[in-house]
């Protein structure tokens, strides 16, 4: 789940990102997220198919903690797990959405850390921070 939208930054300034990441308050207990059903962003240029989480106050608090340190642009928080995006043409998105919009899907997982990712053709973890529960 994305807690802060992707952004561009010069490689030589990456240390600032690492420092901000390490300052994120992760003094939360690990918590459960329940994914329940499918959703979509039907933008013709970049359609997205995703699994949506149930409302979760811990997830919202964690996102606010991230936003405290990564607040250089305004963005809304719409938590989701993307299952189709850049590899999905709009025509295939329409076909997929017809199938998935009424499908039932429910699962859960434990959130016990956050990751800082860099995109080099694919998402690569470059730092992690555990939830400490203090």
Overview of this protein structure:
The protein is α+β, with helices and mostly antiparallel strands and 134 residues long. It contains three helices and six strands, in the order H-E-E-H-E-H-E-E-E. The protein has a four-stranded antiparallel sheet, covered by helices on one side. Strands 5-6 form a two-stranded antiparallel ribbon. The radius of gyration is 16 Å and the shape is globular.
TL;DR of this structure?
With 134 residues, this protein is α+β, with helices and mostly antiparallel strands.
Quaternary state of this entry equals single chain
In round numbers, the mean pLDDT is 90
Biggest sheet details: 4 strands, antiparallel
Low-pLDDT ranges = none
Identify the strand order in the major beta sheet: 3-2-1-4
Q: How many helical stretches?
A: 3
β content, as a range?
25-35%
What is the helix/strand order?
A: HEEHEHEEE
By DSSP, the count of extended strands is: 6
Distance between the termini: 23 Å
Overall shape: globular
Helicity range: 10-25%
Find the structural class using helix and strand composition.
Answer: alpha+beta
Radius of gyration: 16 Å
Helices and strands, with pairings:
Elements: H1 14-22, E1 31-41, E2 48-53, H2 57-69, E3 81-84, H3 90-100, E4 106-111, E5 113-119, E6 123-130
Antiparallel strand pairs: 1-2, 1-4, 2-3, 5-6
